[in-house]
Structure formats: C-alpha cells, structure tokens
Amino acid sequence: MFEVKNLSAAYGQSQVLHGIDLKVAPGEIVAMVGRNGMGKSTLMKSLIGVMPAKSGEISIDGDDVTSLPSHRRVAKGLAYVPQGRQIFGTMTVRENIETGRIVTGKTNIPEEIYALFPILWDFDKRRGGNLSGGQQQQLAIARALASDPKILLLDEPTEGIQPSIIKDIAKVLKEIRQLRNICIVVCEQLLSFVLDVADRILVMENGRVVHVETRAQVDEAAIARFLAV
C-alpha cells in the first residue's frame, strides 16, 4: 500500500534524511522512534510534501507521489496529523472535521468518526481552541480520518497529553486499523505507547533507520538504549 524507497531530504546543504526505506501493508501500524533531532519530523514532512525530497521515491498503491504537492497527496490517500496538532482554534469541532472532508467532495461526517471519538460529539459546537490538549489531539486525528485516507501519518501524537488520553489514543488507533484496514505510521518517543500500538518498530538515528524489530520479538532494552539521552 505505502512504500518509501531511498528517501533523502536536506535543509539547504545540510542533509537530514539518508536513504530511508519503508514498506507498510494495509492494516499495519509502524512506529518510527528515536530521540529529538534524529529526523523523525523531517521524515513526516517529506512524506506529506511539506518538505521536498532530495532523492528517492514515495508511492501509494504503486503510484509515485514524490513530486506531488501536499493537497494532491491527500487526494491520493495520505493523511497527516502534525506535531502540535494544529487544529483551527476559532472553528468549531464540527467545522474542523468538515475541513478534512473537502478533498472527498462530500460534506457529511461519517458516523464512525464520532463513534471513535464520543467526546467530539459532545463538544460538536465548541471551538477547537477551547478543548484540552488531549481533546485537540483526538480532533486532529478525526479531521485526518475525514479525508478517507489509505495511509495515516501521526507525528508525536502523545506530546503534551495526559496518560489516560494516551491510552485512549492507542486504543482508537487499533480500532481505526480494524475498521478501515489502513496503513498507520507513527513517529514517537514514548516507548510504552509504541509497544502498545505498533506491529513493527523502526529506530531512527541521524536520519537513518538503524534498527528494526517486530512487536512479537521486540527487545525493549535495546530500543530503550537508542532512546536514552
């Protein structure tokens, strides 16, 4: 479904990503982990098209989207939940979710989105800026799902979120995978969250993938060493 081949990206003359390879199957959750500054957010920005690739290829269902602008990647099935959530603070919860529907040409909000996030139904008319951090994160995921994606990208979804909401987000990601059979790629530092949701874990260091493990055979101590400051 989703494949990245030899992806490199740079800020000016400073190369940040060095030949990233990634394959994600439908219904699979892959976690990219690593310390701050190791290239995880740059990878996400490159995948969604905010940052152009220096070389390599990004494909969805076999279609090369590497040269496409972000909005056309979204139309091809890529959805992105950025670090810091970036919901529209002055718009209501419903209006935020409706912005995700624009690319589909539809206006109705699927019932399953409110079923996944009941709190958003309760706060349907509340402004996004008046929600807690955890509620905003749920809204950001709901908005991304509204575009009917094939691939869901999430950058640091647990950042600034209280532990009880983190557990809710882990649960809902697994429900989304079951409901829609989509590819999910999460960039994250919180190992407990990663171990809860991921089928496969890739460790990034200095813009490269340096370690790969499946959840079934994961060595927590080995991954924790990569995350240690």
Order of helices and strands: EEEHEEHEHHHHEHEHEEH
User: Could you tell me the number of beta strands?
Assistant: 10
Strand percent estimate: 25-35%
* Name given to the CATH architecture: 3-Layer(aba) Sandwich
Largest sheet: 6 strands, mixed
- Overall shape: it is globular
Can you offer a commentary on this structure?
- This protein has a single domain, classed as P-loop containing nucleotide triphosphate hydrolases (Rossmann fold, 3-Layer(aba) Sandwich), CATH 3.40.50.300.
- 39% of the residues are buried.
- It has helices spanning 40-48, 70-76, 93-101, 111-116, 118-122, 133-145, 163-180, 191-197, 220-227; strands spanning 2-11, 14-24, 29-33, 55-60, 63-64, 78-81, 151-155, 183-188, 200-205, 208-214.
- The radius of gyration is 17 Å and the shape is globular.
- β1 and β2 (14-24) form a beta hairpin.
- A six-stranded mixed β-sheet has the order 6-7-8-3-9-10, with helices on both faces. A four-stranded antiparallel β-sheet has the order 2-1-4-5, with helices on one face.
- The model has no long low-confidence stretch (mean pLDDT 92).
- α3 runs parallel beside α6 (133-145).
- With 229 residues, it is α/β, with parallel strands linked by helices.
Which key terms come to mind for this protein?
single chain, 229 residues, alpha/beta, Rossmann fold, six-stranded mixed sheet, four-stranded antiparallel sheet, 9 helices, 10 strands
